[in-house]
């Protein structure tokens, strides 16, 4: 896919579709065997026709962190995948905006029952009763700005410079709600843009500053940021086009400003930081147990996009993945050049991230590669939840 085609589809490809997790027969692997099985799957993934140039998984069991890295982060110079190099986390950024908002809820600076009208009275009257809870749980009914026909043209006209976040929701502010707020589930990138705007309004500061103070500093995430432009901090994992006929693949790392997806998908992090984030976020380091309990009231069968392994259910900026090896909580995402999965056990002591430098979905990538990635994600969960070798 060439640059002009990428710009044309623009934010509609921030999040791809997916398929359900693939189960395996052996549920009894110990940690050593689980790590070996994961390594084999990761190697096979990058060896597939149309497979990603590189893949890196971080698996942590208590204090024991293992990095499983295969393939290339930069095909131009042969640089290998490394745990501290930066990358785009795509819609896992929604977990970061959720963490920021829920931290403020826990501190009494926001409420899950805050309405759009109370915090952002300049937004459409039809949206006025939508609550922070509904935005975080994708039950708001707000139309998805990334699917608006005008967005592709706007990105193509200005790929490296995004408008202000308030202008992003303007693409859909004249469209009707998709359904009565709270009545059903529908994944929408607009939801987390509005969450970021509500955070800024409630604190009278920028969303970026609150992300820093509520999440990045408390968790010690030194490789994580929300830039405005297309830049990635060096050294970074390059993201590549997924057309198997295009060799070498086009480097898509810096084709679009992070300000276009903003709080919905613009965060830049590293595999190591992403692992630390999901452990702290799921493990309760950022907000109190009452807020955490509300976050984990789920809509059964609701998927993140692409869906995570096993049976999915949606909480507030968090998804439950029930796999053959046990249950984890986390988020997925994909964008130009990257596909991400991050999850942790309910207490945060077991965690896993899987990152590839190509976008994979039902509509993107070579046949069979997405299925292999999803099978690998389940093996990674099994490795994270495995018992120590005897």
What's this, in brief?
This protein is of the alpha+beta class.
Main attributes of the structure:
disordered N terminus; Beta-lactamase; 390 residues; 12 helices; alpha+beta; 33% helix; 15% strand; globular
Give a written overview of the molecule:
The protein has 12 helices and 11 strands. It has a domain at 13-109 and 214-385: DD-peptidase/beta-lactamase superfamily (Beta-lactamase, 3-Layer(aba) Sandwich). Helix 2 runs antiparallel to helix 12 (369-385). With 390 residues, the chain is an alpha+beta fold. 33% of the residues lie in helices and 15% in strands. The model is unreliable at 1-27 (pLDDT under 50). It is globular. The protein starts with a helix and ends in a 5-residue tail after the last helix.
Any chance you could write out the topology, listing elements then pairs?
Elements (H helix, E strand, L loop, with lengths): L2 H7 L21 H17 L6 E8 L2 E11 L4 E2 L6 E2 L4 H14 L9 H4 L12 H5 L12 H9 L7 H6 L18 H15 L3 H13 L48 E2 L1 H13 L5 H7 L3 E2 L10 E4 L4 E5 L2 E10 L2 E7 L5 E7 L12 H17 L5
Antiparallel strand pairs: 1-2, 1-11, 2-3, 4-5, 6-7, 7-8, 8-9, 9-10, 10-11
**Tertiary shape:** globular
Which spans of ≥5 residues are poorly predicted at pLDDT below 50?
1-27
CATH class category label of the domain at 13-109 and 214-385: Alpha Beta
Put simply, the count of helices is 12
Report mean pLDDT, rounded to a whole number: 92
State the separation between the terminal residues, measured CA to CA.
49 Å
CATH superfamily of the domain at 13-109 and 214-385: DD-peptidase/beta-lactamase superfamily
CATH architecture of the domain at 13-109 and 214-385: 3-Layer(aba) Sandwich
Order of helices and strands: HHEEEEHHHHHHHEHHEEEEEEH
Spatial strand order of the main sheet: 3-2-1-11-10-9-8-7-6
Q: Give the biggest beta sheet.
A: 9 strands, antiparallel
Helix proportion: 25-40%
Please state the CA-atom Rg, rounded to the nearest Å: 19 Å
- Number of separate strands: 11
The share of residues in extended strands comes to 15-25%
* SSE-based structural type: alpha+beta
Briefly note the CATH topology name of the domain at 13-109 and 214-385.
Answer: Beta-lactamase
């Amino acid at each position: 896919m060439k640059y002009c085609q990428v710009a044309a589809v623009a934010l509609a490809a921030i999040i791809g579709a997916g398929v359900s997790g693939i189960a395996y027969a052996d549920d009894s692997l110990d940690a050593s065997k689980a790590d070996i099985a994961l390594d084999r799957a990761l190697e096979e993934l990058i060896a597939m026709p149309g497979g990603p140039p590189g893949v890196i998984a971080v698996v942590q069991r208590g204090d024991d962190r293992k990095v499983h890295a295969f393939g290339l982060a930069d095909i131009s110079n042969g640089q290998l995948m490394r745990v501290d190099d930066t990358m785009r986390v795509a819609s896992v950024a929604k977990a970061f905006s959720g963490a920021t908002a829920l931290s403020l809820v826990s501190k009494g600076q926001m409420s899950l029952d805050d309405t759009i009208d109370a915090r952002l009275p300049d937004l459409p009257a039809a949206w006025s009763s939508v609550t922070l809870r509904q935005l975080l749980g994708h039950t708001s009914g707000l139309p998805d700005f990334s699917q608006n026909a005008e967005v592709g043209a706007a990105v193509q006209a200005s790929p490296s410079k995004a408008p202000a976040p308030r202008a992003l929701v303007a693409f859909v502010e004249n469209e009707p709600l998709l359904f009565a707020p709270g009545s059903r589930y529908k994944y929408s990138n607009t939801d987390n843009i509005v969450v970021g705007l509500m955070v800024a309004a409630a604190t009278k500061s920028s969303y970026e500053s609150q992300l820093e103070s509520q999440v990045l500093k408390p968790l010690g995430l030194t490789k994580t940021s929300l830039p405005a432009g297309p830049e990635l901090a060096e050294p970074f994992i390059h993201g590549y086009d997924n057309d198997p006929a295009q060799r070498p693949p086009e480097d898509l790392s810096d084709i679009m400003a992070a300000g276009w997806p903003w709080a919905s998908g613009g965060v830049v992090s590293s595999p190591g930081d992403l692992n630390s984030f999901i452990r702290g976020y799921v493990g309760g380091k950022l907000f109190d147990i009452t807020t955490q309990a509300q976050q984990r009231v789920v809509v059964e069968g609701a998927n993140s996009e692409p869906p995570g392994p096993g049976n999915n259910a949606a909480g507030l900026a968090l998804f439950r993945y029930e796999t053959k090896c046990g249950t984890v909580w986390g988020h997925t995402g994909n964008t130009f050049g990257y596909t991400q999965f991050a999850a942790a056990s309910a207490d945060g002591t077991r965690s896993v991230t899987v990152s590839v430098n190509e976008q994979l979905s039902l509509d993107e990538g070579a046949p069979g590669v997405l299925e292999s990635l999803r099978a690998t994600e389940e093996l990674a969960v099994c490795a994270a939840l495995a018992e120590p070798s005897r």
